[in-house]
Amino acid sequence: MKRAIIIGATSGIGQEVAKILLKEGWKIGIAGRREAALEAFQRTAPNQIEIQALDVTQEDAAEKLHTLIERLGGMELFLLSSGIGFQNMNLREDIELNTVRTNVEGFTRVVDCAFSYFKEKGGGHLAVISSIAGTKGLGVAPAYSATKRFQNTYIDALEQLAYMQKLAIHFTDIRPGFVATDLLNDGKHYPMLMRADKVAYDIVRALKRKKRIAVIDTRYRVLVFFWGMIPRWIWKRMPVKTPGKT
Ligand SMILES: NC(=O)c1ccc[n+]([C@@H]2O[C@H](COP(=O)([O-])OP(=O)(O)OC[C@H]3O[C@@H](n4cnc5c(N)ncnc54)[C@H](OP(=O)(O)O)[C@@H]3O)[C@@H](O)[C@H]2O)c1
After folding, report:
1. Most CB atoms within 10 A, among 27, 116, 129, 152?
2. Which PANTHER family did the record assign (predicted)?
3. Cα–Cα distances in angstroms (integers) from residue 95 to residues 76, 91, 98, 127, 231, in the given order
4. Buried b vs exposed e over 225-235: b needs ≥16 C-beta within 10 Å?
5. Ligand 1 pocket check for 100: Cβ under 6 Å
């Protein structure tokens, strides 16, 4: 039986991926801050699910992640789905800094912990859900887009580090477009909105293929391709007033 840890499985994309892995017979360890949500999900398949409440922004998160790995009996796949994001054109300091704390500090803490675990065990599969938002700086959501770029670059760096250290660690950076989850539950209209269960299906397929970067879905792959070609002097003038933060 294969074992996966998913951090950020109390809702949204992480929980949908967890459901698919359960159906495929995986044993999973899930984490997030909301203990009640973890317990409710565990009741759906008590023999296959281990839980651990943790907050990635807290210093004890790595220790709690180790506890969860131990309780699961080890892990072959680590998936980080925790993240927050908000539109913040007024640059509210609490929103910007909280986003950095979760998507940069928390991300680094648990991703490094997973990397060290796989290093010690001789290999594994380390996957994160970043976003297409890391492709360009988005004026409507500065911290969100910048922290997602950090995540993209961090995984690039770890991949090189693993190569330098001759480690058999595979990396997958998953970059979805707009997905209908709590993250976008702010009453705004989001174009090209995808269903979380469908996105999860694409994610599991990308994980099985050990894809290095998975932009989801095809429409967003095209969009990101063209975004990448837009020069900075045009980009700054573009009214990318996306009604959302992805
Ligand atoms: N929805 C989109 O359009 C979209 C698009 C591209 C990328 N993404 C990315 O996909 C990932 C999952 O988001 P989602 O759309 O599935 O939204 P979601 O339903 O809000 O899920 C976010 C998950 O992150 C966890 N989380 C948040 N802060 C945490 C913390 N400090 N410590 C531990 N866990 C924390 C939440 O659990 P608790 O609240 O229980 O802690 C929850 O399980 C995020 O990284 C997001 O940036 C989303």
Report:
1. 129
2. DEHYDROGENASE/REDUCTASE SDR FAMILY MEMBER 7B (PTHR44196), SHORT CHAIN DEHYDROGENASE FAMILY PROTEIN (PTHR44196:SF3)
3. 34, 8, 5, 26, 29
4. eeeeeeeeeee
5. no
Does the Cβ of 124 fall within 6 Å of ligand 1?
Answer: no
Query: For 165-223, how does the pLDDT look when each residue is reduced to its tens digit (9 = 90+)?
Result: 999 999 999 999 999 999 998 888 888 999 999 999 999 999 999 999 999 999 999 99
Q: Give the start-to-end residue ranges of the domains of the chain.
A: 3-235
Distance 166 CA to ligand 1 centre (A): 32
pLDDT tens-digit profile of 37-66?
999 999 999 999 999 999 999 999 999 999
What spacing in Å lies between the alpha carbon of 123 and ligand 1's midpoint? 26
Q: Which CATH architecture does the domain made up of 3-235 adopt?
A: 3-Layer(aba) Sandwich (3.40)
Cβ of 13 below 6 Å from ligand 1 = yes
In ligand 1, the atom with minimum distance to the C-alpha of 56 is: 32
Q: Is the omega angle on the peptide bond into residue 186 within 30 degrees of 0, that is, cis?
A: no
